[in-house]
Design brief:
Length: 282
């Protein structure tokens, strides 16, 4: 007489089904439906890390996030928090964080020439009034999520921050030291440049984004007395260059090319600031 086969986890339950992976007998309670047959709980647990390791990736190699707007919302939150802090503290906080240019050469007043390089970034989170921050944050909310989905969180943040720094570096090098530069518009222009590069890479119709860039540049140069065109141009070029390295990197050397591009752009930014600092001190 043939001996009854019992579940390996419940010895009092006979079964005729085996795990399709390890072939151990399993009862209905222990059966986990698989693509082919059923698996036991242990095999399912072992396979889960393998499935997690094969999570879908963005076209640039970034992890696909559950919330595609997280970094965008955090950046907006920081901008709004700084704006509210300025309203509470007053102009003294603005003077501690704002960026002043280095042309024509004068005695250092901005702090950048004295080593306060943080102003290159902090100035990009300052805004003059409600309209200023409102326009920039609406633009960031409109442009940011699409890029964040396409690039992944880390790469999107790299594009944003480098664009902000690129705009500040050109502003520091060429702007008048008597007029402070502030605002997230340089970073937003960088996102516009990155969006154009991405749309060209995907072979989408890029005419709408080109029209938006041209229109914004028109308003920029039409109001050079109140708008820092250097920050806008610096951000636009920086964002486009970094995004080009991100989306055109070959798969076999993707990380090397992408982060190498970021490092190269950062070196150029540092060089611009060094030149501006040298100009002031000499």
């Amino acid at each position: 007489m043939e001996q009854a086969v019992c579940c390996y986890r419940h010895q009092d339950r006979e079964t005729g089904v085996r795990c399709s992976r390890c072939e151990r007998p399993i009862c209905p309670e222990c059966m986990v439906s698989a693509s082919v047959g059923f698996q036991c709980p242990e095999c399912v647990g072992q396979a889960r890390p393998e499935r997690q390791a094969q999570r879908p990736r963005t076209m640039t190699g970034g992890a696909v996030a559950a919330n595609p707007r997280l970094i965008t919302m955090i950046l907006i939150g920081i901008n709004v928090a700084v704006f509210l802090a300025v309203q509470a503290v007053g102009d003294s906080l603005v003077q501690d964080l704002i960026l002043y240019g280095a042309w024509p050469p004068v005695d250092p007043t901005s702090g950048v020439a004295e080593g306060q390089w943080y102003r290159l970034l902090t100035a990009t989170f300052l805004h003059q009034n409600v309209m200023h921050i409102g326009f920039n944050m609406l633009s960031l909310w409109w442009i940011g999520p699409g890029l964040e989905v396409a690039l992944g969180r880390v790469r999107f943040l790299a594009v944003y921050l480098l664009s902000a720094l690129g705009g500040s570096a050109l502003s520091f090098l060429l702007a008048n030291p008597n007029a402070g530069s502030l605002g997230a518009s340089g970073a937003v222009f960088g996102l516009l440049g990155a969006t154009f590069v991405l749309m060209r890479r995907l072979r989408y119709d890029s005419r709408p984004i080109v029209a938006i860039i041209v229109l914004n540049l028109f308003f920029t140069f039409a109001q050079t007395g109140t708008i820092d065109w250097r920050a806008h141009i610096g951000g636009l070029v920086t964002g486009a260059v970094v995004a080009f390295g991100m989306v055109h990197a070959p798969r076999e050397r993707r990380a090397l090319v992408q982060w190498g591009t970021c490092v190269a752009v950062a070196v150029v930014i540092v060089a611009l600031v060094v030149v501006g600092t040298y100009r002031i001190n000499h």
